[in-house]
Specification:
By secondary structure, the chain is of the alpha/beta class. It folds into four domains: about 60 residues, DNA Methylphosphotriester Repair Domain; about 100 residues, Arc Repressor Mutant, subunit A (Orthogonal Bundle), CATH 1.10.10.60; about 70 residues, Double Stranded RNA Binding Domain, CATH 3.30.160.70; about 80 residues, Winged helix-like DNA-binding domain superfamily/Winged helix DNA-binding domain (Arc Repressor Mutant, subunit A, Orthogonal Bundle), CATH 1.10.10.10. Helix content is about 45%, strand content about 10%. The protein contains 15 helices and ten strands. The strands form three sheets. Strands 3-1-2-4 form a four-stranded mixed beta sheet. Strands 7-6-5-8 form a four-stranded mixed beta sheet, sandwiched between helices. Helix 3 packs across helix 4 and helix 13 packs across helix 14.
């Protein structure tokens, strides 16, 4: 992967405050001289002011200070052991690494290591490797001449093995993913709201994204990163009636739900993995004015113990408000993170409880 693509992935992780990347890199902000973990709750920096480092030590060597909020350098011993395991796996994605081999590499028993890894990363080592291979397959599918070529370069023994992993990870076959967004037109519009700028994007089938941010440029970049293969265009009078109807409905839905009221009649055109889709459906069933913990959502979908994976599915939500990931909080009642900022989440919950 070239540096530009790698940095785009890291930037997207920072935008999502994705804790799954906390063990992979830190980011530093030129204007403040501070470095943070990707999941840090501090206000997101401007992209042009951001640098990425492989570790807190590297950021400190470059002259940056540790963030007082996220304490990126203050990793406990078990976190450092998991980091060593992740580094080992990343260098061997083409191989089959047994649990006993991985545990021995970090000097722990297989049983203790497996529990620790799952607690810190959210999934088992086996699922982590399968996910990383699938992520690499995504990139190869955009670049390779065929699915077979992409499968081999992503580390699969054959095309058949890639199909099995990819369908679980992508919610579609490799061929369908390779055509993701090709020939698809997504139109978008923005509007001022009490939560800052809102971006609504849609195809002729339905709303594909609802984001909140501080600037139109920021929102446009996020949309293009989300749908890299699609043709994306701002609203104009030349758009067809179907586009205009979808965008109008989307903006009206945003305004209605920001008043703490329920809004029906919106069509969505979003894709997720089977697990993400299951989580998103459960979120839509949470009543206005109510909240659920990540653990409660995990139990609702019949997968107790998957609270970290539930949190990642919430972070991957493309459609704010309509898929109400803001109604999911920590077990202790704290707000926790939100893709579009913890303060926006707090404001939304207060408005819904008051309605």
């Amino acid at each position: 992967m070239n540096r530009e693509v790698a940095n785009e992935r890291k930037w997207n992780a920072v935008m999502r405050r994705d804790a799954a990347y906390d063990l992979r890199f830190v980011y530093a902000v030129k204007t403040t001289g501070i470095y943070c973990k990707p999941s840090c709750s501090a206000r997101r920096p401007h992209k042009e002011n951001t640098l990425f480092f492989a570790s807190a030590r590297a950021a400190a060597a470059a002259g940056y200070r540790e963030c007082a909020k996220c304490r990126a350098a203050s990793a406990p011993e078990d976190l450092r052991a998991v980091q060593r395991a992740l580094d080992y796996l990343e260098s061997r994605l083409h191989e089959r690494v047994s649990l006993s081999t991985l545990a021995a590499h970090v000097g722990l028993s297989p049983f203790h290591f497996h529990r620790m890894f799952k607690r810190r990363v959210g999934v088992s080592p086996r699922i982590y490797v399968a996910t990383r291979r699938a992520e690499r397959l995504k990139r190869r599918l955009r670049e390779a001449n065929s699915v077979a070529d992409a499968s081999l370069s992503a580390g699969y023994a054959d095309e058949r093995a890639a199909y099995g992993d990819a369908f679980r990870a992508l919610g579609m076959t490799p061929g369908a993913y390779r055509r993701r967004g090709a020939g698809k037109l997504i139109a978008y519009t923005t509007a001022k709201t009490g939560l800052g700028r809102a971006l609504v994007a849609a195809t002729t089938r339905g709303v594909a994204a609802i984001y909140f941010g501080d600037s139109v440029d920021e929102l446009e970049r996020e949309l293009r990163a989300e749908y890299p293969e699609a043709s994306i265009a701002p609203y104009s009078a030349k758009l067809g009636a179907e586009f205009k109807a979808q965008l109008s409905t989307g903006v009206q839905t945003v305004r209605t739900q920001l008043r703490g009221q329920k809004s029906d009649g919106i069509s969505l055109d979003v894709e997720g993995t089977p697990f993400q889709s299951k989580v998103w459906q459960a979120l839509k069933e949470i009543p206005i004015g109510k909240t659920r913990s990540y653990n409660e959502v995990a139990r609702l979908i019949g997968l107790p113990g998957s609270s970290r994976a539930v949190a990642r599915a919430c972070a991957a939500n493309k459609v704010a408000l309509v898929i109400p990931c803001h109604r999911v909080i920590r077990s202790d009642g704290q707000i926790a993170s939100y893709r579009w900022g913890a303060q926006r989440k707090k404001t939304l919950l207060e408005a819904e409880k008051a309605s």
